[in-house]
Amino acid sequence: MTTRRGTVFRTLITNPVSILALIWLAIVIIGMLIVIPLISRYSPTEQDLAATLQLPSAAHLLGTDSLGRDILARLAWGSRVTITGVVIVAVIANVIGATMGLIAGHFRSGLDATFTAFADMLQSIPALVVLLSVAAVTSRNVTVVMVVLGVLMSAGAYRVFRASTLNIRGELFITAARTSGLREGQIMVRHELPRLLGQLVIQSSIIASLAIVVQVGLGFLGIDAAPPNPSWGGMIKEASTSIYTNIWPLIPTSAVVVLTILAFSTLGDVAQRAVLGRRRHNGLSRAKISRSVAKTAARASGATVSATQVASTAASAGAAAGAINPMLVISDLTVSVPKDGSSVKLVSNVSLTLLPGEVVGLVGESGAGKSVTARAALGILPAGATATGSVVLDGQEVLGASEQTLQKLRGSKIAYIAQEPMAALNPAYRVGNQLIEIVRTHQKLSRKAARQRAIQLLETVQIKNTEHVLKAYPHQISGGMAQRIVIAIALSGDPDVIVADEPTTALDVSAQMQILDLLRTLQKERDLAVLLVTHDWGVVADLCDRGIAMYAGEIVEEAEVAPLFAHPRHPYSMALRASDPHAQKRGGRLHSIPGVVPPPGTWPSGCRFADRCGFATDACREQAVPLELIEDRHAVRCIRVDEIVVEIEELRHESVTGERTAVRAEAVEHDALERVTREQAAADSAAVESAAVERVTIERVSVD
Amino acid sequence: MTEPLLTEPQLTEPLLTEPLLRVTDLAVDYKRRRTVARVVENVSFDIVEGETLGLVGESGSGKSTIGNVVLGLVPAAAGAVIFDGEDITHASPKRRRELTSDIQVVFQDPYGSLNPARSIGATLAESLVASDATLTRKEVTARVHESLDTVGMVASVAQRFPTEFSGGQRQRIAIARALIVRPRLVVCDEAVSALDLSIQAQVLNLLDRLRRERSLSYLFISHDIAVIGHLSDHIAVLDRGRIVETGTTAEVIDHPQDAYTRLLLAAAPVPDPAAQKKRREAFRTQRAEYLASTGAVTGLVSTTRL
Ligand SMILES: Nc1ncnc2c1ncn2[C@@H]1O[C@H](COP(=O)(O)OP(=O)(O)O)[C@@H](O)[C@H]1O
Ligand code: SF4
Ligand SMILES: [Mg+2]
């Protein structure tokens, strides 16, 4: 994520259209305004009646006008009037607009009402009449006219800046600055103003293009530079008088004017889209899957059970035996995004299978790749990402499928429930209207019938006062209620598979309990297959048949829930469970996993968990660790899986006979645990210390 | 001003037990369009220096509102907030700014609470300079590094930007920002709720260590009573803006008296399929009981709350 300002500037200098616009403006400003007046052989007022209305030649690059004056020289000198005017208007409009907008947006209260009334007033004034009167009163003083235009245009800018400030003002870091003791003025200047810079670019461009239009118009009416001094508007007027004798002078003149106006409005447009686009996409967008990927995918989908399919132990065993056709088969999925010229893997070689009516939990810390995997099941990849491997949904390949196919699959075959229910609802529309719209995209129904169906859906998710809910706006309902509605939306197309990404993480524990209850009921009633993403083992324990632990982009353990909880075999699964505060005794330190998940691109080449693992040895760091079946339907990615069982047994024995380990660990804990987080540099030595700590973690769990 | 002579002998005794923060009969109103809603009513509690009070309740019960009144972000409609003997209920903006060096906050959202456009160092320094403008640049840098060190981060973190850190790391930074001014009371508003459970444990340990090292007091707000239990000396349970139960942590968690408290206790899932199944059943029973005892309609009990 970058700041909005950074995004806007970067877009302007990378987008091809805005680059052209910038180049043109550079030509106008540097070339016309500065260079040509310095080097030109001609003065803009120098007449040569022997050479009137000439076409371009070596002597006159853009030809001459009806008085034989050099058009290029006149355009260049004329740009002075225009550019000065534009600068005056833009500066005045933005300074007034931004200052008042910032103050009104920040303080609201009485000032806001006053300023807004003032802006209303400005906008209701007939601008042209005012400008013409001002021109008349000041005997055509262009500068004064432009100042007045700037003031008039500040009203529009004010609205935009006020609205942006209102948005920023609600952000948590503003409240944080206030509780840090900053004055309101400091908050405005340091925290709010910098965020308005992107808007400033947009407004300046829009105002500039409008200002040129007005300026040229006034010039056409003869209200700018006093003849014979050149101005763009004046030149167009002159050229248009001789249009029947010779059209040429009009061409370069109007071309320059039009291109300059276009350049400014293009910049404004691109900048605007950069700001909006950032809001809209917010991380994920539809995948652009490269051709080669599609091919790989097609190839992979041919084979139902590949070698890598060993990962998906439980189900693939069933599927291979020909018992049941799986609902969803992900095989050998690798998703990469481009970064700094190379490609970085977000998840690597993930394979999993979901049977009809089965609930599988995908568990791990943030950044493990759970969401990337889960969304791939719907054919959604992170922006710019490529994928290899295959995702087969009820026999149909999803990776590389057309948008049309995906659209059909989503909703009717597979549906998605996201973590943030409020984000899935549009705050501007009533819940009922949104639900009805969605119902009608799935089925051709009259509005009335769709409303009936919407009510049915709400009843399905156990909402009782449906009429009331249909009329409510999203901000009027609680988070738990919003998640019920999102679930209702997911069910509207009667899907077979539901992908739920942390569906209860944003809710408080009580709402979570009820949503889990609801999911369980619905799953049973409709025999849904559910892929449930969570960081909470409690949620897995509550709802799932099978659990898959992910770490640093790969699956590290997969088993049915009973053995996974009774005898977790991967050190990460053990540590993750042991660190759940809900499962720990009060008093004393909490067990935690030191350090953080290594981000994509920094994965160790050996076991990816090695830096945080209490059982790591040199051998663990040597080469990539394969995922292996250790028992029927239980796969683990750890080369020491058998030795660890013995070590834990020994530790348990030790701690039963004496508190030795525990005491030693307490001492280490105080220093080590917290400090391991000190960046990667410390990771190595800390891993040694944390080894001792983690052993005890595991030992305590087994004793508990 | 002759009184101190008289009262001095009497004062010494009560001073020892005077709490750092005392909230009495607090009520808070929110204006909604044309109506006024009372969202907190009759709330009273004390926090003794060096102790932690856990404030627990489901979302919308008024926990954050109470924290915000203590921080001066929301006005009180009635009642009083006494900090270290001083009534700060209606403190002036100037006094409020001074108080920020005594009362600090750590918010829930580690992504929203740091300005993405400012370096960590700038954010920390800003907080410090606002509380004490006389510090030299060198002193400020030293304090920034020191506060990063207390939360287990290296000094070079100061040059980096919030986007470069994970949720848990950002929450450490938010804690560093709160502690850099050496406050006496920290309001932790769902300070770990947005983090992974395994990271919650890390941050809870950090908060606990800092409290012991600096005899800090926390007003620890969370919807998760299990998390509250790990850090709090006392717990107050909030239901629809009113406190329904208070007591020591052991009393409230091990021997809950109120039906609502029992409901909250049953709501947090445990990572054990068999135990979780029992909890689920307990939750249903508790819910029926609570409904019967109060007839209330809340998110916990009914699916009809709007
Ligand atoms: N659009 C993206 N561009 C680059 N990296 C991304 C993008 N989306 C996700 N990632 C990264 O991929 C990794 C896995 O992310 P994710 O699947 O969201 O993990 P989880 O769901 O387990 O928390 C993370 O490090 C995340 O930062
Ligand atoms: S024991 Fe070795 S292979 Fe197994 S998880 Fe730990 S570091 Fe990885
Ligand atoms: Mg996720």
From TrEMBL, chain A:
Membrane association type: Multi-pass membrane protein; Peripheral membrane protein
GO BP, one annotated term: transmembrane transport
CDD domains: ABC_NikE_OppD_transporters, TM_PBP2
InterPro entries attached to this UniProt entry: AAA+_ATPase, ABC_Ni/Peptide_Import, ABC_transporter-like_ATP-bd, ABC_transporter-like_CS, MetI-like, MetI-like_sf, Oligopep_ABC_C, P-loop_NTPase
Keywords from the named record: ATP-binding, Cell membrane, Membrane, Nucleotide-binding, Transmembrane, Transmembrane helix, Transport
Domain ABC transmembrane type-1: 79-268
SUPFAM superfamilies recorded: MetI-like, P-loop containing nucleoside triphosphate hydrolases
Sequence intervals crossing the membrane: 12-39, 81-103, 115-136, 142-161, 200-223
Gene Ontology molecular function terms on file: ATP binding; ATP hydrolysis activity
The keyword Nucleotide-binding belongs to this UniProt entry's keyword annotation: yes
Cellular component, GO annotation: plasma membrane
Top-rank taxon: Bacteria
PANTHER family xref list: DIPEPTIDE TRANSPORT ATP-BINDING PROTEIN DPPD, OLIGOPEPTIDE TRANSPORT ATP-BINDING PROTEIN APPD
Record protein name field: Dipeptide/oligopeptide/nickel ABC transporter ATP-binding protein
UniProtKB/TrEMBL annotation, chain B:
A Pfam family of this chain: ABC_tran
ABC transporter domain sequence ranges: 21-265
GO biological process: transmembrane transport
Single GO molecular function: ATP binding
UniProt keyword annotations, A-Z: ATP-binding, Nucleotide-binding, Transport
CDD domains named among the record's database cross-references: ABC_NikE_OppD_transporters
Domain of life where this protein originates: Bacteria
InterPro entries given in the database record: AAA+_ATPase, ABC_transp_ATP-bind, ABC_transporter-like_ATP-bd, ABC_transporter-like_CS, P-loop_NTPase
Classification via SMART domains: AAA
Annotated family: Belongs to the ABC transporter superfamily.
Record PANTHER family: D,D-DIPEPTIDE TRANSPORT ATP-BINDING PROTEIN DDPF-RELATED (PTHR43776:SF7), TRANSPORT ATP-BINDING PROTEIN (PTHR43776)
Name assigned to this protein: ABC transporter ATP-binding protein
